[in-house]
Amino acid sequence: MNESMKARTVIFGTQEDRIQRRLDALDPDLGRYIRDFAYDTVYDRPALDLKTKELIACALLVSLGSPPELRTHIRGALNAGAAEAEVRDALMLCVPYLGFPRAVAGFEVLRQHLEPREKPAPGQGTGLQDSEDQ
To answer: Structure pTM?
Structure first.
């Protein structure tokens, strides 16, 4: 990660403006608190790298059962340099602590995120629309 780049810029990627608009539309103070405290303060702490923070966030969001936020942070983990295998291992670590249903739900979010990246064979479409997530 470019050290001068804000964590939220890496995590949200091309979705940063859309996500911030969505949060602001829910409530401007909420949007500001999430941006300023969660991302520009907590995520700015130096002891853990952004990839590790995002892998932890993925496991925590599986525990909360928050699929839209999980998809955002799966994308964030990958944007921060995590390999797909590392995201899978973070989700797998949820099994002994949270149980199979929560872990399966987490893997489903990962599958949905990765599916659009799969390229169809030449001349064949996937029929998938590029869906927006949280």
So the answer is: 0.81
